[in-house]
Amino acid sequence: MRATARSACLDEAGFTLVELMGVLSIIAILVMVAMPAYREPLADAERARAGACLVSLATEMQLYRLGQEGFEGFRPSEADLDCRRQLAGRYRFEVGVVGKADWGPVATDSPYWQLRAIRRQGTGPSGSGHCRILVYRFDGGRAAFDGNTHSAEIPDPAGRCWG
């Protein structure tokens, strides 16, 4: 009688392989649903950090102008800023002149400069796709673009792109 009761308990203890696979499948689905919700705030925070870095680069550019008596030769990619170094793998920083389509690594001596941060392709989640490029102008103006070569400026009244 003892052997029969013991074997009956062994038959009902634990989970079957099918039950375990079902639970693991449910967990995998929940993770797949939750990952975009987890990644988007991280991408938004990184984009806000890139915007703040543009403001810091503008300050560096003004300090460069005071020391060199002009903007010519300022290189955003060589600015001695922690934010620029930390974001260099994911963002490219460039300088240009307002009203001209030319952007590059070196500033001209125009007082109407603008800086931009471009999110590099394939460097993780991008968050809101319409905010791939951030622009900061000499007069404090801010803009965002979606990254298309012919894209127009995106109105950002709520500060979605700039944090």
Summarize this entry quickly.
The chain has a five-stranded antiparallel beta sheet, with helices on one face. It is α+β, with helices and mostly antiparallel strands and about 160 residues long.
Put simply, the count of helices is 3
Order of helices and strands: HHHEEEEE
For the secondary structure, the number of strands is: 5
Residue-averaged pLDDT:
84
Classify the secondary structure makeup into a structural class: alpha+beta
Taking the sheet with the most strands, its summary is: 5 strands, antiparallel
Unreliable stretches = none
Q: What percentage of amino acids are in beta strands?
A: 15-25%
Termini gap? 73 Å
Strand order within the widest sheet? Answer: 2-1-3-4-5
Rg on CA atoms, Å: 26 Å
Shape: elongated
Helix content: 40-55%
Structure overview:
Strands 2-1-3-4-5 form a 5-stranded antiparallel beta sheet, with helices on one face. Strand 1 and strand 2 form a beta hairpin. The mean pLDDT is 84. The longest helix is centred in the N-terminal third of the chain and has 52 residues, at 17-68. The protein contains 3 helices and 5 strands; from the N terminus they run αααβββββ. The chain is α+β, with helices and mostly antiparallel strands. It has a domain at 40-145.
